[in-house]
Amino acid sequence: MLKLFEYNWQVRNEWFNWCEQADEHELTKERTGGMGSILYTLYHIVDVEYSWISGLQGREPQYVQFEDCADVRKLREYAARCRAEIAPFIHGWKDDLETNVLTDQNNEGEWENFSYGEIMRHVIAHEIHHIGQLSIWSREIGKKPVTANLIRRGLFKEEIKAEGKHSL
Amino acid sequence: MLKLFEYNWQVRNEWFNWCEQADEHELTKERTGGMGSILYTLYHIVDVEYSWISGLQGREPQYVQFEDCADVRKLREYAARCRAEIAPFIHGWKDDLETNVLTDQNNEGEWENFSYGEIMRHVIAHEIHHIGQLSIWSREIGKKPVTANLIRRGLFKEEIKAEGKHSL
């Protein structure tokens, strides 16, 4: 589970770097589909991860509204603060948390039960999906997107080293 | 790991259904970014999963070229055949396979080592990323995309039931 969060955090960071090299008006320009703009998509990714994982931690999240972090530097700072708050839970994840249940009220006011494992995977998939959307918009404005490859990121270096007997 | 493959297979199937309701020329129309068309993206998703997992199985994949399955019915059949071949490996996944190493030759002819855990997560993230791209194209042609939510799909029904003591 941790590896997929680390992957998302790497990719997200590379998108912040990408944003720093892009025209500012392209970042907030309204686009078709998804969350509507590049910067708002990145905000939404941070927001959704922070919200669900705070729920699993039993903490009250201290949100910042989009209007108050609607540039790359501020959003990056907000993302770093959110990540610092949730990281202990992600790093402390154990398989026996899988079947714990979070009870959450949805937008229609109904109470729903989710297993912790369901929430964790939802958060992972949520970010990857939205990053896929950014990659299309990136090409539309003529810029190369951040690579989405999970392999060749050094995320599994230790695992490969530990199995040296198989290496070339 | 299995849950994320099941999620991808559900979503993929819903995209095939979506394709059946779409104008055929929209499916093969060349688009900006990603793999260039909706149908080819779905082919690419099937192809990449089949290729990597066959590698982990030590099997020689029996590919079908895109030209030979370039409509929804044929691609669905090919996807079903590929999935049937790889499903035993996915269903039989155990954590102690994580650090096994696959040695693979890349496009530049260099040999690379990957842990099985790295490959599995790469395949999962690969599909979710490309599905995100489809969701943008879907809105561009004025159609509602398949939901990408991982929650509320019934994937964790058993886990919730087993923890009945927490339920409302």
TrEMBL record, chains A, B:
Coiled coil region boundaries: none
GO MF term set: metal ion binding
Spans through the membrane: none
Binding residues annotated for a divalent metal cation, in chain numbering: H44, H126, H130
Keyword check for Metal-binding: yes
Pfam families: DinB (PF05163)
Swiss-Prot/TrEMBL keywords: Metal-binding
Top-level taxon: Bacteria
Family: Belongs to the DinB family.
Protein name from the UniProt record: Damage-inducible protein DinB
Gene source species: Paenibacillus montanisoli
